Amino acid sequence: MKYLATLSLVFLMSLGAVAQEESAVELKNQGNEALRAKNYKGALELFEKAIAAWGEEEMDAAMVYNTATSARKIKDYEKAQKYYNESKNLAYKADVSTYYVASSLKSMGKNEEMEKVLLAGIEEYGASKYVGHMKKMLAGYYVKESNALYTKGQEILNSRVDGNRDQWDSIKAKAKVVLDESSAFAKKALEYDAANKNAQAILTGIDTFLKS
Questions:
Q1: Is residue 2 in a domain?
Q2: Shared-domain flag, residues 37 and 79
Q3: Cβ distance 21 to 57 under 8 Å?
Q4: 103, 116 in Cβ contact below 8 A?
Q5: What is the pLDDT of residue 210?
Q6: Whole-angstrom distance, CA of residue 106 vs CA of residue 115
Q7: Which of 78, 100, 125 delimits the end of a domain?
Q8: In principle, which of 62, 70, 206, 207 could form an S-S bond with 44, CB 3.0–4.6 Å?
Q9: 53-83 confidence digits (pLDDT tens)
Q10: Considering the domain boundaries, does residue 5 fall inside one?
Q11: Residue 12 confidence (pLDDT)
Q12: Which domain holds residue 34?
């Protein structure tokens, strides 16, 4: 009797595991339908339920990627970053997942983390078609930093009083320190996007100001 009871328990546990697996797969399929219908919020909820119910089986990497995409579409960048990271770690569309990790960080204002992700991605996925997008995003960040410093340098230069040469020399020296930093960022931008007109314009502007 004990033997039969043990067999019955094992059988019931097996049925429960199968039911759980089917439930997770069903949730995933419903999530896919919601994603195709552009119901991104609903898709995200269904995919997350499927992930939670997935059990011990190998995780469905495509589902994780779709979870990240659903989160990105509703601008839940924290979850988008989380699931794109998981997708990358599962080696599913690792290059584009890396790009969207960086994009999510950018949207959350985490620029230093974004920079690290992009630099690593550019090195790791040099042959990927998405590297160009990574480089442009990185160049855009450097241009933004350069422009902020350029504006600060202009403000310092514009603080002079006409006719006071001694004051002008001092102001120009202070501005040069800031503009040199701006120039360094602009040059970094051009390393990753050689045709970036904004970076080129900043460098031209710096040269003009320092010659005045």
A1: no
A2: yes
A3: yes
A4: no
A5: 74
A6: 9
A7: 125
A8: 70
A9: 998 889 999 999 999 999 999 999 999 999 9
A10: no
A11: 40
A12: 10-125
Amino acid identity, position 101: V
4 in a structural domain: no
Q: Using the predicted structure, report yes or no on whether residue 167 has a pLDDT greater than 90.
A: no
Phi-psi region of 88 (alpha: psi -120 to 50; beta: other; left: phi over 0): alpha
Task: Record the pTM.
Answer: 0.84
Would you say 100 and 137 are in contact if contact means Cβ atoms under 8 Å apart? no
Domain end, chosen from 67, 100, 125, is at: 125
Residue 39 pLDDT level (bands cut at 50, 70, 90) = very high
Query: Is the domain of 109 the same as that of 55?
Result: yes
